Recover the amino acids of this structure.
């Protein structure tokens, strides 16, 4: 499974609902996570003015994560909601090893134009 960082900014509708009936949203979203086959690593609310919700999840693919995010965004609980693929140090090293193995095949636009 791949690791993803999800970040969102909760909406006024979310605040209204939570003030009218405080609830543990982690428990509420568990059935949806299970339906998508997503494993929660962390589920946190923060005081950041740009993104006040952060989650770390494990999913099978980018497509699964994108589908999950689209469902969440459609709930009107967030004014923005984004996701990023995350790499641990070992996997990030592999990304650069792959780049190193193939970098000789790249021709820069400056070289192509005869400017370097």
């Amino acid at each position: 499974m791949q690791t993803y960082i999800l970040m969102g900014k909760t909406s006024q509708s979310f605040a209204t609902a939570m003030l009218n009936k405080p609830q543990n949203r982690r428990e509420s979203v568990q059935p949806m996570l299970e339906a998508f086959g997503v494993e929660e690593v962390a589920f946190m609310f923060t005081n950041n003015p740009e993104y006040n919700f952060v989650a770390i999840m494990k999913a099978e693919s980018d497509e699964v994560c994108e589908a999950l995010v689209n469902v969440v965004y459609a709930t009107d609980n967030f004014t923005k909601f984004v996701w990023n693929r995350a790499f641990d140090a070992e996997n990030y090293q592999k990304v650069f090893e792959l780049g190193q193995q193939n970098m000789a095949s790249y021709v820069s636009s400056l070289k192509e134009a005869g400017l370097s």
In short: The longest strand covers residues 2-10. The chain has a mean pLDDT of 93. The domain at 2-87 is CATH 3.30.70.260 (Alpha-Beta Plaits). The chain is about 45% helix and 30% strand.
